Every structure is written in C-alpha cells, then in structure tokens.
C-alpha cells in the first residue's frame, strides 16, 4: 500500500442523527411497541454506534413516525383536555358554600358533627370534634382535632394547624367551604 492509498473511514455520526433514533425508540417504548429492557439496550447501542447502518437497524422493526402533524395534533388535544379539567375544577370551586369567618374573640369556632359545636356538620365523613378555627396573633388558624378523614386547606392536608384567610378552600372530611370575611355590623363593610 502506498501513501496515496489509504482507507477512508465513514463520516462520523452527528448528535442530531442519534437524537432522531432515540426519539423513535422513546416513542416506540411509550406506545408499547418496545419493552423497557429493549429500549434501554437499544439506547446504549445508539449512543455507541459508529455507522448509520447501526442506527437504521435499531429502528427497522418500528413503523415510521407519523410525522410532525400527528404529534402536534396530539399535543394540542392534550392541552385542551388539561384546560378543560382545570376549568371544571375552577367552576366547582366557585360553587362552594361560604364559611364566614366569625368576629375575632377569645373562644374558637369548633367544627364537627357534635351538637355543641359552633358549626355543626351533618356529613358522616366529618368527626364529632373535627377542627377548630381560632384567631391568633398571626391571623386565623385552622386546627385539626385528630379527625379520621382529615382537614384540608386548598387541597393540602392540615397536620396540626394551618394559617387561613378569606378565599381559602377548607374541607372537613368530604364537606368543602370557601372562607369569606365577615361583615362589621356597625359599618356594613367587610372586615
């Protein structure tokens, strides 16, 4: 072999080519056409591949991608569906009955099924002594009294106590309310 006769190595694979193959493999795994183990094994081969033929072999048994339009349509449908779910949740949240914050005083507002409570709940999902609402230095505080089905503020479970304010959604068992500010009877204005 003379110095003018040398072997030409194939062009190096680009990262974009590898990414296209990895995207096809990912879609195949998501659609259930590849098992997780097969996906992981083929990913390793794609990252170590030196020739285009190796990459083509990895996706030969997968049908060609539907193109960009079907993916855009599916993504758009997913976003519209998610918006619809959020809209329904917001619509239900606005229909919650109000729970008027009482005038601040030395005694807490007890909430539960017991007849001695300031706010008596008739739903079986609430405990006899479910929670209490107190006005403290930091503002209104909702305390769970060891209820079985929980006390929630804005869909988060209260462990011990939580600071609340007008506009918050509070749930006792399965009964939900929207906290609203009380009115000052002397002025006829919200407090």
Describe what you observe in this structure.
With 191 residues, this protein is α+β, with helices and mostly antiparallel strands. The protein is built from four helices and twelve strands. The strands form three sheets. Strands 1-10-9-6-7 form a five-stranded mixed beta sheet, with no helix packed on it. Strand 9 (169-172) and strand 10 (175-180) form a beta hairpin. Helix 1 runs antiparallel to helix 2 (36-48) and helix 1 (15-30) runs parallel beside helix 3. The radius of gyration is 31 Å and the shape is elongated.
Determine the strand fraction and express it as a percent band.
Answer: 15-25%
Overall, the morphology is elongated
What is the H/E string?
HHHHEEEEEEEEEEEE
First-last Cα distance: 96 Å
Biggest sheet layout: 5 strands, mixed
At a glance:
The protein has four helices and twelve strands. With 191 residues, the protein is of the alpha+beta class. The protein has a five-stranded mixed sheet with strand order 1-10-9-6-7, with no helix packed on it. Strands 3-2-4-5-8 form a five-stranded mixed sheet, with no helix packed on it.
